Give the backbone structure.
Amino acid sequence: MQVPRFAKGVLFQCFNPKYPPVVLTVFASRPDEPTVITAGVIAIVGAMGLFVHSTAGSLVRYLSPSDKWSRNLDVGFGVLLALVGFWIAVKPFISN
């Protein structure tokens, strides 16, 4: 059973297709802030997120009764993530 690791998460995040648009959006939304501060905020928030993700993942893997249960949990979280993305995409069209 493989548990998420912080260093692996950092490396994986660099290849995440959502990462560049999010970073560019943050920089674009804060044009008056110094670049170093914006980059620092992104790095700190990203590191905190990766820490929470790897810690929670390790805990869930440790407490899970079987690999099948863990896979089903992963699928469930993936479906929830897809539903949130779908909701974000259609919200502007249904809120009018």
In short: The CA atoms of residues 42 and 48 lie 10 Å apart.
